[in-house]
Amino acid sequence: MAIDLDEVFAYKTVKVVKMLDRRLGFVFYGIESLIILYIILFVFVINEAYYEVEQSIGQVNIVVRGATFGKFDGTNVPFDAIDLKQPAVENGATFIITKIEAIKQTRDECTNSEYSCSTASDCPIIDGISTQKCSKGFCVMSGWCPELTPDHQELKTIRMEHVEDIILWFRSAITFPGIAPNSSFSSMNREEPTFAEDNGSTDAWTLKELLDQAEAPVEAVKEDGAMLSIRLEWDCVVDKIGGCKSPTGQVRRLDEGKVRGFNYYSPEYVHDQTLNFGADTRILYKYTGVRILVSSKGFGKKFSIMATILQFSSGLALLSVAKIVTDFLLLFVLPEKEHYRRYKEEETPDFSDLRDKIVETEGKAVKLRGRQSRYNQMQNTT
Hints:
The chain is of the alpha+beta class. The protein is built from nine helices and 16 strands. Strands 1, 3, 4, 5, 6, 7, 8, 9, 13, 14, 15 and 16 form a twelve-stranded mixed beta sheet that branches.
């Protein structure tokens, strides 16, 4: 059987048919309206897709302001911001002291809380360090004595009063080299911090405000410490005057779980003048407080005609969804689908075969005229 190439390579084109059915019209124009609303409201108004956007990382300088005091042996001892901030300079982080514990130690024999025991045989034998002695559930070993424990009679403790009123000022800066290579946005040059009540632009908070945002109880934090993460979020329109104000702060507590708090130990040594290391003494300090980690990130935005055209053309391409859905209902769902299909799908005659027949007929006519002309010539000759 011969293959009909016209059938194999048949071309399908669109035929415009006006379907007089309100149901199809409601579906088609309803979907188109929703798509247009999506383009206008979501893409351009809410999502601001007409902007070219660049993400960047900024810099932060943390300034601590304020002063407080602590009670020691019934006497108020003053502490200022320099005393409370440890260390004095740190990139993107700081530590605010809420409680100090200290004890004077010498090298001697005492229980070591890192080695628990039930009997003396549980303790290691180390020449000059341990001789397998067990006392009160811990091994007796040579080391710095006495240990810093909350109930030791020689322990000195001082708690900061009203430390939650200390001010933390986050001076920050950010640049967007991709869309604004010659511009920088900074609060580094401000002489005074800006609080929440100052026109809604904020770069300073009290410690209590930060703890409240992290849902951390102030009194518990003053006793046990805490770790906070503060993310400064920039949202800048770089081609607009005043389009980049102070970043907003997002605070989250990091020491979540069963064990909460933050502290660290710091020794202060007094060395023997004869260089007898065994005769050295030290004061061991335990600092409890709030460890604050700060990051500065943000987005810079600039109007872009290319982004606008791209988003608009992408949105218009969605309009074809209305036609696809309506055609699906027309051909496969509605009760009148068989009737609609006859109008929508139509097969033309094979006009290429008709053309071949016309050419064949015209050729026969030419031959017939040629024979008629020769016959007439022969008649004229005779």
